[in-house]
């Protein structure tokens, strides 16, 4: 019986060790069904009085950029933030890496997205995001299964 318990514990340990957790300070999502993973991430958080502002810039190996922004005077930290036409909550994506370029897609009046922060503690936030992003001429891209994994900020 003792040997059975030891074998079970070893098997549980082996299956747990084989899991590949996402790295810290990492952003990933599916862009029109293709996996996008960050090579670098910069996160800025301003949490003063009633103001809660988060800006995340993620860049992949091809220098494509994703920008996520939350600006709130009513909510802080953990919660769901939905895009609006004022740009208070915003998702932007630029294949060229230039947010002013014609290939820049963003949420707005007709294209919507959300950012969900499910963990917010000193120096680290974690969450998810998704949305439909549009260019000025109506082209759309779809972002699904966005993950914000243990993003560090100071």
Quick structural summary:
With 154 residues, the protein is mainly beta. The protein has one helix and eleven strands; from the N terminus they run αβββββββββββ. The protein has one domain (23-152).
Helices and strands in order:
Elements: H1 2-17, E1 26-31, E2 34-37, E3 40-48, E4 51-59, E5 65-72, E6 79-82, E7 89-94, E8 104-106, E9 113-121, E10 124-134, E11 140-152
Principal-axes geometry comes out as: globular
Rounded to the nearest angstrom, the radius of gyration is 19 Å
Q: Give a short account of the largest sheet.
A: 6 strands, antiparallel
Give the CA-CA distance, first to last residue.
52 Å
Class by SSE composition: mainly beta
Mean pLDDT: 85
What does this structure look like?
The chain has 154 residues and is mainly beta. It has one domain (23-152). 10% of the residues lie in helices and 53% in strands. It contains one helix and eleven strands, in the order H-E-E-E-E-E-E-E-E-E-E-E. It has one helix spanning 2-17, and strands at residues 26-31, 34-37, 40-48, 51-59, 65-72, 79-82, 89-94, 104-106, 113-121, 124-134, 140-152. The strands form two sheets. A six-stranded antiparallel beta sheet has the order 2-1-11-10-9-6, with no helix packed on it. Strands 3-4-5-7-8 form a five-stranded antiparallel beta sheet, with no helix packed on it. A hairpin with a 2-residue loop joins strand 9 and strand 10 (124-134). The radius of gyration is 19 Å and the shape is globular. It starts with a helix and ends with a strand. Mean pLDDT is 85; it is low at 4-20.
